[in-house]
Design brief:
2 domains, Antitoxin_RelB, single chain, three-stranded mixed beta sheet, YefM-like fold
Length: 147
């Protein structure tokens, strides 16, 4: 038995309003798997999850190229972006990061693959963003200008 509030699946379904009320107070809940081949699930407040993931930082190396365009390399997701201007490159980096994170949703086996498991916290940080502006701020850490 876990230390979290624990519910069997059927009971959780019947008490969803109560579980959601607990989430508003940052109280996580564990829902026991229905079958032996399933894993338990956890309901967690979005802001609490964002706080837990906060130490997972991005490092973006932006460079001006000889032709005046910009290139950005995004660590640790090992992705890049390019743009004619710095603002375009920043926006392209946000789009690339969003596409990286969306790959986890569209290809759920990425959550299980050994070569992508270390990237899960970064994908979740991106997925918690509500807009490209939020992703851009997450990557670059400062106020961003509109493109």
């Amino acid at each position: 038995m876990s230390m979290l509030k624990e519910y069997r699946f059927t009971v959780a379904r019947q008490n969803f309003t109560h579980i959601f009320d607990d989430l508003q107070k940052c109280i996580p809940s564990l829902v026991k798997a229905r079958k032996k081949n399933e894993t338990d699930g956890v309901f967690l407040n979005r802001m609490l999850l964002a706080q837990i993931l906060e130490p997972y930082k991005f490092c973006v190396d932006m460079r001006k190229e000889e032709d005046g365009s910009f290139t950005a390399w995004i660590e640790p997701i090992n992705d890049y972006a390019m743009g004619e201007t710095e603002a375009e490159c920043r926006r392209a980096a946000a789009v690339a990061a969003r596409e990286f994170a969306e790959d986890f949703i569209h290809h759920p086996l990425m959550f299980e693959a050994k070569n992508t498991q270390s990237l899960i916290p970064y994908a979740l940080r991106i997925l918690l963003c509500e807009s490209l502006d939020d992703i851009e701020h997450l990557l670059f850490g400062e106020d961003v200008a509109e493109v």
